[in-house]
Fold Rhodanese-related sulfurtransferase.
Amino acid sequence: MDQAIVIGSLSVGLLILAVYIKNRGNISQLRIDPQEAKRRLDKEKGIVLLDVRSQEEYIDSHIPKSISIPLSVLRQEASERLPDKQTTIFAYCRSGNRSRAAVKILLKQGYNNVFDLGGIVRWPFRTVSGNK
């Protein structure tokens, strides 16, 4: 019986590790660099530029035409504010940690075209301030 518990525990552990490695790989493949994001934003219509920082950070400085949904409320507000799960979404924050978490949240909610733009600190193009 003790051997069955050990084997079961190892099996569960390996399964958790496999899921972690698979999901970690997917997130890194979903990164988009600022130059590619800017090129696509200039050429393609309908891309959502999602700022997941706090409202205060957004007002201070953000990428033009981005929308603000702070990471703290993204789980609750995504389906209402981003109803089309096929829409291409570029998520960004200040340094890249919150945008990576946002991509994971959105993928779990069934969004298919989500990319991690990383931090606004790497955005070499124009930014604006204010609510819009």
